[in-house]
Description:
There is one protein chain. This protein is of the alpha+beta class. The protein has one domain: Gcn5-related N-acetyltransferase (GNAT) (Aminopeptidase, 3-Layer(aba) Sandwich). It has 6 helices and 6 strands. Bound molecules: coenzyme A. Coenzyme A binds at residues 8-9, 12-13, 76-78, 83-89, 117, 121-124, 126-127, 130.
Amino acid sequence: MEACGDERTQQWLTGMPSPYGLDDAKGFIASRPDAAASGEAVAWAVTDAVTDELLGNVSIFGLNNRIDNSIGEIGYWMHPDARGRKVMSSAVELVIGHAFRPVKDGGLGRRRLVLRCADVNTASAHVAEANGFTQVADERLADPRRDGTYNNLLTYDLLATEHAAS
Ligand SMILES: CC(C)(COP(=O)(O)OP(=O)(O)OC[C@H]1O[C@@H](n2cnc3c(N)ncnc32)[C@H](O)[C@@H]1OP(=O)(O)O)[C@@H](O)C(=O)NCCC(=O)NCCS
């Protein structure tokens, strides 16, 4: 609730309930098993390796695309106290490995991953770039803010072929 109610999380993740309450957090957690069971999305809690305290969340979603089920989109947030320590860059690295791993080896067998963020969300863009994603689109005024303004929306992608070669 603290992480999702945080000003910057609310600023960049416009789809989050606002204000964000404990029931919203409980509802999100309760909905994740169904999302995974239906094959739509997988979400991970990012926790402190020593204390197991929740630091953030990273998800891969859009896995049930009817036309192309070899893709996935990565999304994330960190608790404000845990930001700036490259935790999310490291978490995304692990998610990428799992996403590209063949299904027969326990992975998601993806071929292409995408990541989207507002062009002014530099921290999020850094996470994409640190993980080898390439910016492939800059959609003009495509990312709505809660105050009625819009930002340009960057799309980054990463292919399994280039990831394997890196
Ligand atoms: C985006 C977010 C998850 C990044 O998490 P994080 O653990 O702080 O990220 P990391 O420390 O792994 O890496 C962040 C990168 O951005 C940089 N960075 C961190 N805070 C920054 C800021 N406020 N402005 C600019 N750059 C910033 C870091 O230096 C790092 O860059 P580097 O690898 O070149 O040094 C976190 O800022 C967040 O929760 N933001 C609010 C929610 C959000 O924007 N979600 C994504 C929506 S698209």
